[in-house]
Amino acid sequence: MTKPTSLEEAQHLDLNDPFAPFRASFAIAPGLIYLDGNSLGPLQHGVRERLAETVSEQWGVGLIRSWNTYDWIDLSTSVAARIAPLIGAPQGTVAVADSTSVNLFKLLAAALRLRPERKVILSEKGNFPTDLYVATKLAEFLGQGHELRTVEASGIADAIDADTAVVLLTEVNYRTGSRLDMAQISAIARKAGALTLWDLAHSAGAFPVDVEAAGVDFAVGCGYKYLNGGPGAPSFAYVAAQHLAGLFQPIGGWQSHVAPFSFSEDYEPAPSIEVLRTGTPPVLSLAGLDAALAIFEGIDMAALRRKADQLFDIFVGNVEAGCPQLELLTPRDPGKRGTQASFAFDNAYAAVQAMIARGVIGDFRSPDIMRFGLTPLYLSHQDVWQAARILCEVMSSRAWDNPAYMTKAKVV
Ligand SMILES: *Cc1c(COP(=O)(O)O)cnc(C)c1O
After folding, report:
1. Is 197 in the pocket of ligand 1 (CB under 6 A)?
2. Active-site residues: which are they?
């Protein structure tokens, strides 16, 4: 067990925190402790200004001219260029378009085409539902006998065999926060002749990621979680350089054409990562994501991760000392987890609502999980110290045992 931290120790860590100045970039209400940046990253002042300018000047005044004057048409390429270093991808191997679900569909289809004789898509039981649904629906749609096989995390390596076409995994589990060994599993897959498609929704922007060093074939990730791009921000897709030539794009809309404005009736794919574009880019969303990513410029992701680990130790250490009835689901070993802390509790939904009423926003995941995202750009050591105190107060006073906290909203 991690030993509890005193308020003085937390305050001392804040005084020596190189990331403390970043808090001022975020529009989080004073006094609010936001532990849900793993689900929806918060607004930055710079993002609000950029969106306002894009709406009033670029759209309002510039109208259609802005596709050229403000280079809207290449905005997704510049956003991709900002994301590439965050995931260890060489320039020209990342595209930004559509949602994570749609990019999963595109890349899984592309990967299956590269292994036509193999029929198994291997994934983890308990993977994020969209990954499993997309794999199932694509297999059904192809009608070529593909099947989705899911196994426990501990059985993945052994389940990769000569029938495996694609290993489809999420690096950090959205419920427990446990992290798979992306490099090791990718190496095993490669040796067996299988391809890998990694979902980095809870990795990109949270800690150093290096898809190239890990030998990943394909990856997708989310723009609105740790990257703070705003609700429904576009997703990113990575394709290892060796798979770029001739990549099959199953939703090859006009923006994936080599020359969209030739309006040619013959489809000729863009000979680059831009082939992953589909239709007209969502300029407002892209502008928000572009502005949100500026904060990552020059950031030391390893140092950011070290602070996240410190936040984890304070939060988890104090929760375990103060309310031992909660069961930690997240691995303690920093190498085996992302940057969230999850606890199991029978009345998790109500307990999270009681915390929100007390100014601490975390979230609930079915069936009984309380989830807390530890995001060092805008959380102080004192914040997580306070959050642990409030959680334990909710537990010891049974504040969760209140009908007002029991009715689930549509979005949980
Ligand atoms: C959040 C999340 C997604 C989201 O996909 P959308 O298409 O943006 O809704 C996908 N995969 C994982 C693992 C996630 O956590």
Report:
1. no
2. 128, 199, 224-225, 371
